[in-house]
Design brief:
5-stranded antiparallel beta sheet, 6-stranded mixed beta sheet, OB fold (Dihydrolipoamide Acetyltransferase, E2P)
């Protein structure tokens, strides 16, 4: 990935039947970046992708590609290719014919097309499948053919609209790594749409979290997970305890009636804030060793850890731990100051999650 700006969406708005889908969206994509648009249904992520691909025209704003305005260009005039969730393979064509479709339209030679098909099939691990019918392939194989059909056109950008959504969990996880490998081998830019936060965290260089037509946060997977900017992001990216509290002073916040050390500064004195504590960052210890005590009210074995709920001062704290604590057990609760993350209170409904406020 370089710092060169490849795509620039400038002041994009889009409405359907009076409903605002994108509201003054500004976003850029860097060359060779794997950028993921992440958010719930109706947040505007697919509309953003379709505007980049030329399948939708924004009401206002511009799509800039390598410094040129391509807002009004047709999809086939852009250096992008799209892989949809429904792979849109032609059932009456073989795998090879499906892959060759775009190249034949461009009137490429047979030798050129045959060479491209062979290379693409090798890239997606489908050597020897040239003469198969798509209907005789598994969902994962069909998805690979759709990707092969896109990459033979040598696009500078590959747009992927929830391409793994129809696959089962194991195959979806395998394909995540395949896509990362493909992106690295091809050296092209990926713009990926999903509502699955695990997919986004696994594959992306950059995640764009969207809700209600607005960008909530842009950052690396680590930044998005560890430093959410608002309650919506914290709640959407992984599981979180989001607790209303008071920022007493720099490096000290009051939640659940107790002062917790933290590392955040600059939020003022005695200011209402939201506090995010990830379930895996809660340490359960002997009651005498905790900052606060609680009682285990629920216990589920998840394979890699136990998922527990611990009632403490009227709040049900979600905890992930490899240590076993039975229901009814009194425990102490500790959280390292670095893992107590402070956020400003939401300024709009778009930034909100379900928050328990202190009295």
């Amino acid at each position: 990935m370089t710092d060169k700006k490849l795509i620039d969406l400038v002041n994009i708005t889009k409405s359907y039947d009076g409903d605002v889908i994108l509201d003054d969206l500004n976003l850029y994509v860097k060359e060779n970046e794997f950028l993921t648009l992440l958010g719930p249904s109706g947040c505007g992520k697919t509309t953003t992708l379709r505007i980049i691909g030329g399948f939708e025209t924004p009401d206002t704003g511009k799509v800039i590609f390598e410094g040129k305005d391509i807002t009004d260009l047709e999809p086939y005039e852009r250096q992008v290719n799209t892989v949809f969730q429904k792979y849109a393979l032609f059932p009456h064509m073989t795998v090879a014919e499906n892959i060759a479709f775009g190249l034949k339209i461009k009137k490429k030679s047979k030798a050129y097309i045959d060479d491209k098909i062979a290379h693409a099939l090798k890239l997606v691990n489908l050597d020897g499948y040239e003469n198969r019918s798509p209907e005789n392939l598994s969902g994962g194989q069909q998805q690979r053919v759709a990707i092969a059909r896109a990459i033979v056109n040598e696009p500078k950008v590959l747009l992927l609209d929830e391409p793994l959504g129809a696959l089962d969990l194991k195959l979806r996880q395998d394909m995540q790594y395949e896509l990362i490998r493909l992106k690295n081998e091809l050296g092209i830019t990926f713009v990926y749409v999903t509502h699955d936060q695990e997919e986004a965290l696994t594959m992306s260089d950059t995640i764009v979290v969207m809700n209600q037509g607005y960008i909530q946060q842009i950052g690396s997977p680590v930044d998005i997970y560890n430093e959410p900017e608002n309650a919506f992001v914290a709640d959407f990216i992984g599981e979180s305890n989001i607790i209303g509290g008071t920022f007493v002073e720099d490096k000290l916040v009051k939640i659940l009636g107790i002062n917790f050390p933290c590392v955040d500064v600059g939020f003022g004195r005695n200011k209402p804030v939201d506090v995010v504590i990830r379930p895996e960052d809660v340490d359960l210890v002997k009651p005498s060793e905790g900052i606060i005590t609680g009682t285990v009210t629920s216990l589920i074995f998840k394979g890699v850890h136990y998922e527990m709920e611990v009632m403490t001062n009227g709040y049900e704290l979600l905890v992930h731990s490899t240590d076993f604590f039975p229901v009814g057990k009194e425990v102490g609760i500790r959280v390292h100051p670095f893992n107590v993350h402070i956020m400003n209170k939401p300024e709009s409904e778009d930034e909100e999650a379900v928050v328990i406020d202190e009295d």
